[in-house]
Prior knowledge:
Blueprint: E1 7-8, E2 13-16, H1 22-29, H2 32-35, H3 45-55, E3 59-61, E4 66-74, E5 79-90, E6 95-102, H4 111-127, E7 131-137, H5 141-149, E8 153-164, E9 167-177, H6 178-184
Parallel strand pairs: 6-7
Antiparallel strand pairs: 1-2, 2-4, 3-4, 4-5, 5-6, 7-9, 8-9
Helix pairs in contact: 1-3
Amino acid sequence: xxxxxxxxxxxxxxxxxxxxxxxxxxxxxxxxxxxxxxxxxxxxxxxxxxxxxxxxxxxxxxxxxxxxxxxxxxxxxxxxxxxxxxxxxxxxxxxxxxxxxxxxxxxxxxxxxxxxxxxxxxxxxxxxxxxxxxxxxxxxxxxxxxxxxxxxxxxxxxxxxxxxxxxxxxxxxxxxxxxxxxxxx
Length: 185
């Protein structure tokens, strides 16, 4: 079921990506510090165009679409400060995965947590997911803290399980069940 878009939170507007977001995405994903814990190097203009074309149709989880990926916008200025996503990992097992990326200037303000809560609500209450996970590279303490603030529990970690950017990286896995979400709501 696609969500009613845009999604408004207390301080943010979460909306589908549009062509005019190219510059904001280029500024975000063109930075080495932003993509440090992602699977790719900073994106070129062509890479940003390809990314934008790929994520624009990600407007909900339904029979045809397996992902929701939204621009995180400051409503007063219209500035795109990042993106959040909810991806269906398994229809059969009703499982999803959340993700978030914010511009460095916006770190530490609670925006990732606020936007991710909206996606957890959508995943559990509208899509009917049973379990949602979030992952973070073991050294990515800031992302781990966001997942913990969301109320997700750390289920485990994998040491040096992936070869990424010329080094072995590890992964911490966090999760929340629908019953846990409903109990806290």
